[in-house]
Amino acid sequence: MITLKKLNPLEDATLEELGFTWHTDSDGSKYINNELVEVTQEEAEAYYEAGNEIYDMYVEAAEYVIENDLFFELGIPFNLIETIKKSWESNVHWHIYGRFDLAGGVDGKEIKLIEFNADTPTSLFETALLQWALLKQNNMNEEKQFNNVYEAISQNFKRLITLEDDIELFEERYDGWKILFSSVAGNEEEEATTRLIQQMATDAGFNTSFEYLQNVKFDEDGIFDAHDNQYEYWFKLFPWEDIGTDEPELATTLTTIMQNQEAIILNPAYTLLFQSKGIMKIMSDLFPDSKYLLKTSFEPLEEMKQVEKTVFGREGANTKIIDVNGDIIEQIDGPYNNYKKVYQEYTEFNKDAKGAKYQAGVFFAYEACGLSFRKGSEIMDNMSKFVGHVLV
Asked: One short Pfam family name for this protein (predicted)?
């Protein structure tokens, strides 16, 4: 059972001073939970080891997909395939961050992979900053967390230049390259998160700027802001699958830009392979004995309680929990029903004394680097709550 430590909550005014404006959900309830999950040092180390081992399996599975031309099976838009291959070929296309969603890990329950948010930074702001603020607010030791997210991502930006472990080489190799950061205008959460990641890159030593996505200029010669300044790197908080399906002209232009070596895009296009839940079927086949993986298939699993998901989708939309006899126990509708389906063996989340369920999130930036939780029901949706943790 999940054990919780009660806290004095952060006031809305304090959160807004930090740039965190999405603190209250549509029903008036607070998004940031006023409790912390108690985690032992051994449990934190197990999450760390799981994140590292699972990432290695994703890399092997992605290589298998590329070598065997399995893009269709993963639901990858055809106009992004060459972009993905190009980004996979060279280390200059560096994966900056991702977040694993995991069941278990606390109170003796085995850690199981639910999915990998490899290109979308949901809960990054909360995990990297607000957990520390919660501890400080309550006069607790701020070091009592498995949470090195901010520093880990900053260091990972340096690897764009060093392309190796020795990030101390950054200063002697960096030659003034600039990163343009972009999000869609009008979305406060995405803009605040993008600007946080921009600050991480600035702290790493890069020259950085911000431009709303609508104002960025693209042509075969590169990527430019509204003032025609050119950038060697472009970070976009805009999903690759949406570029492929909704912005086909942009997808074609980005492929040309990459082929001409005019800019490097972050996160790289190959993270779309990781983002597709279809790759978990490939991993299930390649690593049938992994203690972290649940059986996953493109067809309904026989005689097994399971979860039906779309290969792309967010916040639990278009997810069903199906009983052994085929009855739908719980489901959430959404806009992703046209995507291909995958079927994943069901596993239970940890619960607290009141029956609320908890899904762990482990951020990965070169290595596993931080832990937080989402609190909700059987299917974690956009009304799930953020819960920090404390080491005990």
From this structure: GSP_synth
Number of separate domains in the chain: 2
Q: Is residue 289 part of a domain?
A: no
Residues 252 and 109 in one domain: yes
Q: What is the pTM of this model?
A: 0.96
Contact 362, 104 (CB under 8 A): no
List pLDDT tens digits, range 319-369.
999 999 999 999 999 888 889 999 999 999 999 999 999 999 999 999 999
pLDDT digits (tens, 9 = 90+) for 87-133: 999 888 999 999 999 999 998 999 999 999 999 888 999 999 999 89
Task: For residue 24, give every residue at least 6 positions away whose Cβ sits within 8 Å of its Cβ, in sequence order, or none.
Answer: 12, 30, 31
Spatial neighbors of 253 by CB under 8 A, at least 6 apart, are 218, 219, 220
Task: Note whether 195 and 336 are same-domain residues.
Answer: no
Please give the Cα distance from 122 to 138 (Å, whole number). Answer: 25
Sign of CA dihedral 255, 261, 263, 267: positive
Q: How many residues does the chain have?
A: 392
